[in-house]
Design brief:
Layout lengths: L1 H20 L3 E8 L21 H6 L9 E10 L6 H15 L6 E5 L5 H11 L6 E4 L12 H12 L9 E5 L2 E4 L4 E2 L8 E2 L7 E4 L2 E4 L24 E5 L7 H8 L4 E6 L7 H12 L3 E6 L14 H4 L2 E2 L5 H12 L5 H10 L1
Parallel strand pairs: 1-2, 1-3, 3-4, 4-5, 11-12, 12-13, 13-14
Antiparallel strand pairs: 5-6, 6-9, 7-8, 9-10
Helix pairs in contact: 4-9, 6-7
Length: about 350
């Protein structure tokens, strides 16, 4: 009898170890942000972003190691207000390297919320894999009462480990919601429910490690994107100018003088501006600077030839993309062409 029990236990151990070995492998790539922030004094609203290591973030999310075999890498330790091209290039290239490994099933990128939507869209354009890439952040620092980071990270790992998330492009998991990085916008300064996708809606939910998917993105992304960082070391300068009552052309001309290759208008309403500002933008377009009309309004589509005659002015309409995302697509587009028609195609497809 004892011998039989020993054999059963041995078989059970082998089966259990086999199950453990079959857990998907997820790499958490950390960049800093509030999710890794620490307060100098308990209870204070202020904090320093990027204070904690990726290992600390993993340890603070109980049970996350049962969702996947985890590895962690620290690419940066900054608040995302300081995100820059150098970190973007380093991050994108490392994520592509990791995804090319056959034993890596998904990536989680921890990130500050201020520019999370920009980094997510940039990665959506240059990542060359259909494996899940999930960005995650938090609105409260790690040392805060009721910190939201640990559960957000737990859910992000669950999505990154989920085969159903393949082919959806770069995703964002936050506050139990699942969004496409292209569509998401930060809409509140401090609320934990700050992120929404105002035009297309969220694509699913991630609730205590269980993901449900409502729809699939229709824009081109990742493996279907024609953009990459191959042979690209510098992105062209593109500035955003903000429209308002009594706006003149001073900021437009300053952007031209600073060497901008493209300008995005954060326009009023349907991507419009004062006559003085439009005249300055038209001057820039005649000099070969690509001008894209977006809007400072939080949702909607800026279509061609509605508020303004884009054909006559030589402008591009941003369609659904807000100014900060229009800037990213224009920068990537300018690595390939300055042709306005071609760049308008990009805004229709991405």
């Amino acid at each position: 009898m004892l011998k039989r029990i020993s054999i059963v236990l041995a078989v059970w151990c082998l089966v259990a170890s086999g199950f453990a070995a079959e857990l998907p492998r997820v790499v958490i790539v950390a960049t800093g942000g509030t999710i890794a922030g620490a307060q100098p004094k308990e209870g204070d609203p202020g904090y320093k972003s990027g204070s904690l290591s990726v290992e600390s973030l993993i340890q603070a999310a109980p049970g996350v190691d049962k969702l996947a075999r985890l590895d962690g890498e620290q690419v940066a330790s900054i608040g995302s207000q300081d995100m820059n091209d150098a970190v973007w290039f380093k991050l994108a290239r490392r994520v592509n390297e990791l995804l090319a490994k056959p034993d890596v099933d998904g990536i989680v990128v921890t990130h500050g919320t201020d520019t999370l939507e920009e980094t997510g869209f940039f990665l959506d354009l240059v990542i060359k894999s259909d494996k899940p890439v999930v960005l995650v952040g938090s609105m409260r620092p790690a040392t805060s009462t009721s910190a939201d980071g640990p559960l957000n990270l737990y859910n992000a790992v669950a999505v990154a480990a989920d085969p159903e998330a393949r082919g959806l492009g770069v995703l964002v998991v936050v506050n139990d919601d699942l969004h496409a990085a292209r569509d998401i916008q930060k809409m509140n300064t401090t609320d934990v429910q700050t992120f929404t996708s105002p035009n297309r809606g969220q694509i699913g939910e991630a609730y205590y490690g269980k993901a449900r998917y409502f729809n699939r993105p229709t824009n081109r992304h990742t493996t279907k994107s024609e953009f990459s960082l191959d042979g690209v070391d510098v992105l062209p300068r593109v500035d955003i100018v903000y429209s308002h009552e009594n706006a003149d052309g001073v900021l437009v001309r300053a952007a031209v003088a600073a060497g901008a290759k493209g300008i995005v208008l954060a326009g009023v309403g349907d991507g419009n501006a004062t006559k003085d500002m439009i005249d300055a933008l038209a001057e820039a377009a005649k000099k070969g600077i690509v001008v894209v009309r977006s809007t400072r309004v939080g949702s909607g589509i800026v279509r061609r030839n509605i508020e303004l005659n884009d054909d006559a002015l030589g402008f591009v309409s941003a369609m659904e993309l807000n100014p900060q995302k229009a800037r990213i697509l224009l920068r990537m587009g300018l690595t390939k062409t300055k042709d306005v028609g071609q760049i308008q195609r990009y805004f229709g497809e991405y």
